[in-house]
């Protein structure tokens, strides 16, 4: 069941830093960048090369019986495998060795050495093949936040979510479909934190999630070597078309002191936003002291005040 007509993302070829920063970046919309030099990784990072080069370093992975991973309901388990064995398993459609099912799906999202303190950096966690990838330097070095190495089983779909930093999704090998939703469509996505409760964006349960039909669906298909620019706060959902390898590069769009200094994943709300949400929660708790008629009236006044003071007409 389709919710609305798909809007395919604009594509740009052979973009340099100047054109990106002057013409594309200010629009604050996702675009696909083609023809950029991302290094030798697109042809070197074969299953055989990765498994041999990565060696037996232990990696923590998501394992799910089904292809649609759901972060809210946690329909997966965490397991640990040597990297070389993980790569071989992730490339299989059916497994002789498995944790929960012979058709289970695998997902690696690289982490820092101590995930509570360290960010993901492909040059630190996977130095043996990090030199194969060339990341476009379209932002200043002090804006860099993390470079996340990802591997997905064929057909794996990841939950819809947003990040608080801008990022490049570099599709290194394989193909990937990406569905995106504007930050302005947050009211229709049934959010739980930074994630949408609507797991199946292709056949949503519109009885349970009726407002989802109003969300505008943006879409693109990434080939090996393509780069998707995802501005901060844009929701995205991905499906791997075959065994896929990618690298996300996140950078700070806002001044550094705007971000939570304990955030190693890049998904905690900016400090000011987190404080505002806490204040709102306290205000809503205070409204519970009133009878229903008064609570409803003053809640509506609060909504109108927020709309008047904080809503913007400058973004689609």
TrEMBL record:
Coiled coil: none annotated. Its EC number is 1.14.11.42. It catalyses: 7-[(3S)-3-amino-3-carboxypropyl]wyosine(37) in tRNA(Phe) + 2-oxoglutarate + O2 = 7-(2-hydroxy-3-amino-3-carboxypropyl)wyosine(37) in tRNA(Phe) + succinate + CO2. Pathway: tRNA modification; wybutosine-tRNA(Phe) biosynthesis. This is tRNA wybutosine-synthesizing protein 5. Homodimer. Residues 124-268 form the JmjC domain. The keyword tRNA processing applies. Keywords: Dioxygenase, Iron, Metal-binding, Oxidoreductase, tRNA processing. Its cofactor is Fe(2+). The keyword Iron applies. SUPFAM superfamilies: Clavaminate synthase-like (SSF51197). GO terms for molecular function: metal ion binding; tRNA binding; tRNA(Phe) (7-(3-amino-3-carboxypropyl)wyosine37-C2)-hydroxylase activity. It holds the Pfam family Cupin_8. It comes from Hymenochirus boettgeri. It comes from the Eukaryota. Belongs to the TYW5 family. tRNA hydroxylase that acts as a component of the wybutosine biosynthesis pathway. Wybutosine is a hyper modified guanosine with a tricyclic base found at the 3'-position adjacent to the anticodon of eukaryotic phenylalanine tRNA. Catalyzes the hydroxylation of 7-(a-amino-a-carboxypropyl)wyosine (yW-72) into undermodified hydroxywybutosine (OHyW*). OHyW* being further transformed into hydroxywybutosine (OHyW) by LCMT2/TYW4. OHyW is a derivative of wybutosine found in higher eukaryotes. GO terms for biological process: wybutosine biosynthetic process.
């Amino acid at each position: 069941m389709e919710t609305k007509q798909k809007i395919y993302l604009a594509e740009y070829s052979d973009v340099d830093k100047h054109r990106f920063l002057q013409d594309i970046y200010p629009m604050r919309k996702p675009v696909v960048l083609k023809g950029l030099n991302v290094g030798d990784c697109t042809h070197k990072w074969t299953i055989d090369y990765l498994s041999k080069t990565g060696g037996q370093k232990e990696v923590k992975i998501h394992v799910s019986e089904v292809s649609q991973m759901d972060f809210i309901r946690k329909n997966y388990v965490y397991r640990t495998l040597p990297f070389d064995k993980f790569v071989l398993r992730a490339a299989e459609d059916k497994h002789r060795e498995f944790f929960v099912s012979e058709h289970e799906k695998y997902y690696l999202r690289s982490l820092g050495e101590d995930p509570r303190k360290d960010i993901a950096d492909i040059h630190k966690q996977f130095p043996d093949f990090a030199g194969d990838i060339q990341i476009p330097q379209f932002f200043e070095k002090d804006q860099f936040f993390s470079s996340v190495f990802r591997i997905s089983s064929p057909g794996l779909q990841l939950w819809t979510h947003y990040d608080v930093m801008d990022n490049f999704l570099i599709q290194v090998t394989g193909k990937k479909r990406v569905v995106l939703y504007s930050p302005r469509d947050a009211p229709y996505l049934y959010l739980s934190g930074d994630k949408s409760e609507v797991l199946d964006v292709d056949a949503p349960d519109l009885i349970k999630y009726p407002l989802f039909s109003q969300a505008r669906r943006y879409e693109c298909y990434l080939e090996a070597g393509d780069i998707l620019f995802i501005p901060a706060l844009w929701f995205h959902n991905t499906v791997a078309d075959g065994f896929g390898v990618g690298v996300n590069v996140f950078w700070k769009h806002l001044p550094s002191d705007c971000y939570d200094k304990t955030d190693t994943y890049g998904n905690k709300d900016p400090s000011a936003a987190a404080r505002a949400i806490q204040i709102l929660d306290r205000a809503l708790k205070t409204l519970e002291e009133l009878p229903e008629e008064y609570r409803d009236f003053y809640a509506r006044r609060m909504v109108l005040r927020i709309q008047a003071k904080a809503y913007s007409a400058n973004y689609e």
